[in-house]
């Protein structure tokens, strides 16, 4: 917990999303259940496909907890600059860390939530992801935020996508087809194979950033000039 406190005091002095909140430097928050692909997404964007053994190295970075389970130990922060400059916070989705998500968006003015869902997940986990996503969408601190739901398509051993993009069942299972109009205009889902992203310029990511820019600049929301 002291690490978390230290983190927030660091945020208070950070030139981007200040606690008082009038900063125009957009802040993104990547959330989603554990092992959905969030950290992989952040480093694929930041480093691109140059990090060839990312899969193996990320497994090594995980520290075993008392049950012997390996979990990502902390949050990550990076800045992206390809389309417009923004700060990106990425927080683990393990059960313990899910309780702390709130602290991030209550302390930092968040302009865009990127919510990652593993397209190969079982029904129960999809329902859990849906519950978390809809709680976020109803949070007062995120009432103007853009929501980009990233369905991580993944490939099986034969390199076939595990998620059927045409049927796109997660749109319905995550309740994205029946959003209230106050949320609907600032929400969109994107299907991508995160492990295959080739940096910020990748066209899959470019589409997401184009949508985020449109929402962030809209006068119904933050009305930013990017
Ligand atoms: N095949 C495949 N594996 C992926 C993909 N994205 C992530 N992975 C793997 O899935 C595992 C979990 O990915 P992470 O990026 O660490 O997941 P996370 O969402 O950050 O998980 P937490 O930090 O626990 O919340 C890692 O071993 C990744 O290499 C993908 O698109 N395809
Ligand atoms: Mg992680």
Give your account of this protein's structure:
The structure is a single chain. The strands form two sheets. The chain has a six-stranded mixed β-sheet, sandwiched between helices. It has helices at residues 2-12, 38-47, 54-61, 95-98, 101-107, 123-137, 170-173, 181-184, 203-217; strands at residues 27-32, 63-64, 70-71, 76-80, 86-90, 112-118, 146-152, 187-192. The chain is an alpha/beta fold and 226 residues long. The protein has a single domain (29-74, 82-217), classed as P-loop containing nucleotide triphosphate hydrolases (Rossmann fold, 3-Layer(aba) Sandwich), CATH 3.40.50. The termini are far apart.
Assign the CATH class. Alpha Beta
Mean pLDDT: 88
Q: Can you tell me the overall shape?
A: globular
Structural class computed from helices and strand pairing: alpha/beta
Order of helices and strands: HEHHEEEEHHEHEHHEH
Secondary structure tally: strands: 8
Molecules bound to protein: guanosine-5'-triphosphate, magnesium ion
CATH topology: Rossmann fold
- The N- to C-terminal Cα distance equals 36 Å
CATH architecture: 3-Layer(aba) Sandwich
How much helical structure, as a percent, in the residues?
25-40%
What would you give as the CATH superfamily? P-loop containing nucleotide triphosphate hydrolases
Low-confidence sequence ranges: 9-22
Estimated radius of gyration: 17 Å
Q: How many structural domains does the protein architecture include?
A: 1
Report the portion of residues in β strands: 15-25%
* Biggest β-sheet: strands ordered side by side in the sheet: 4-5-1-6-7-8
* Major sheet summary line: 6 strands, mixed
Separate helix tally: 9
